[in-house]
Amino acid sequence: MKHIDIKKILKTRESKFFRNLPDFIYTFFENIIRQKEINLILDKYTQYEGVEWINMIITDFNLNLQIEGKENLPKNGKCFFVANHAFGLADGLTITKIIGEKYGKIKFIGNQVFSVFPNLKSLTLGINMYKNSARENLVALNKAYKSDVAITHFPNGDVSRIYKGKIQDNIWHKSFITKAISEKRNVVPIHFYGRNSWIFYFIFILRKMFFIKAEIETVLLPSELFKKRGKIIKVKIGKPISYKTFDKSMSHIKWAQKVKEIVYDL
């Protein structure tokens, strides 16, 4: 079954660059992301969903999770669990597994890319990083914020690239600070060690040199997951930050960058 169809996905993107590519380029992309292998794996676990599905995928890829600071996870899961977006997929699977197994109820904020994984529909709070989110998505987001469910989030909204001479997230969005204050949610910082392959960052640099806006390197993210097969995923969980910390001494956007610094200091 064709769970992932890269041609269909790219043709629905906002970018004209992706929509107007010739068919042989789509075939090339299918091979790069190992579309056939991904669909075979997804076929194996169609009967699973949510955290159970994630556990099956992590087991299939033989990811060795090394988690430090589990004792810092609070008893009450009504928090934002925020992390740097080092990998794109392996970190998303890992953080959902950790928080989901701890608290049971969990939602994660993800962009439209996750809509291709129906097994994650029950966990996903969908947003679109490239245009305004649909009204129903915003309603679902606000409902989740007001609930007691644990929420995981990568505030960068995108995978780490090379910024200011090193591999790191770009500027973190402020929404989790705003909602932490209004909904009285503490923030738990989480750091992922590691990076993607150099080819991922090389393509990023290359497209920047040629002023190509389309994020071509994101097509490589599924193959980056395959490169993590059998590898160690190291994670460190920091101490919770009270929502009362985010006072008026700084703007919400500056507080977001402060939390980002705390994450990287881990």
Throw out a few tags for this protein.
single chain, alpha/beta, two-stranded antiparallel ribbon, 11 helices
The number of distinct β-strands equals 9
Beta strand %? 15-25%
Number of domains: 1
Would you tell me the structural class of the helices and strands? alpha/beta
- On the 0 to 100 scale, the average pLDDT is 88
Question: What name is given to the CATH topology?
Answer: Glycerol-3-phosphate (1)-acyltransferase
Which stretches of 5+ consecutive residues score pLDDT under 50? none
Description:
It is globular, with a radius of gyration of 18 Å. The chain has helices at residues 6-11, 16-19, 23-32, 35-44, 50-60, 90-103, 135-146, 175-182, 198-209, 221-227, 252-265, and strands at 64-68, 79-83, 106-110, 124-126, 150-153, 161-163, 166-168, 186-192, 232-237. Helix 5 (50-60) crosses helix 6 and helix 8 (175-182) packs across helix 11 (252-265). Helices cover 41% and strands 15% of the residues. The chain is an alpha/beta fold and 266 residues long. The model has no long low-confidence stretch (mean pLDDT 88). Strand 6 (161-163) and strand 7 (166-168) form a beta hairpin. It has one domain: Glycerol-3-phosphate (1)-acyltransferase (3-Layer(aba) Sandwich), CATH 3.40.1130. The strands form two sheets. A seven-stranded mixed beta sheet has the order 1-9-8-2-5-3-4, sandwiched between helices. The chain has a two-stranded antiparallel ribbon with strand order 6-7.
